[in-house]
Specification:
By secondary structure, the chain is mainly β. The chain contains no helices and eleven strands. The chain is globular, with a radius of gyration of 13 Å. The termini are far apart.
């Protein structure tokens, strides 16, 4: 059973920064693409960023230049550094691996940006 545990969410003012972490329980973490998704109230869950086993990254257009995804394979952990946060970034952020909407999901961490 794969477990993904997110942390690092919270309340921040617009323009501020947060760093999310996702710890994975899988020993094969290093060969898995890891994703961050988010879901705002009343909206569909959307892909924010992905990182391949080799470190290649992809970002949603809305977060390019502000968010950075990274991974530490020795710690089975993936990170999402979020800078210049905007009110519209308010959402529950989920860590994921596998083929969405299936695969494995974390429980989510709330990010709230005050304007």
């Amino acid at each position: 059973q794969v477990q993904l545990v997110e942390s690092g969410g919270g309340l921040v003012q617009a323009g501020g920064s947060l760093r999310l972490s996702c710890a994975a329980s899988i020993s094969i973490f290093s060969i898995k693409t890891m994703d961050w998704y988010r879901q705002a109230p009343g909206k569909q869950r959307e892909l924010v960023a992905s990182i391949s086993p080799g470190g290649g990254t992809n970002y949603a257009v809305s977060v390019q230049g502000r968010f950075t995804i990274s991974r530490d394979n020795a710690k089975n952990t993936v990170y999402l550094q979020m800078n210049s946060l905007k009110f519209d970034d308010t959402a529950v952020y989920y860590c994921h691996t596998g083929r969405a909407p299936l695969g494995y999901w974390g429980q989510g961490t709330q990010v709230t940006v005050s304007s």
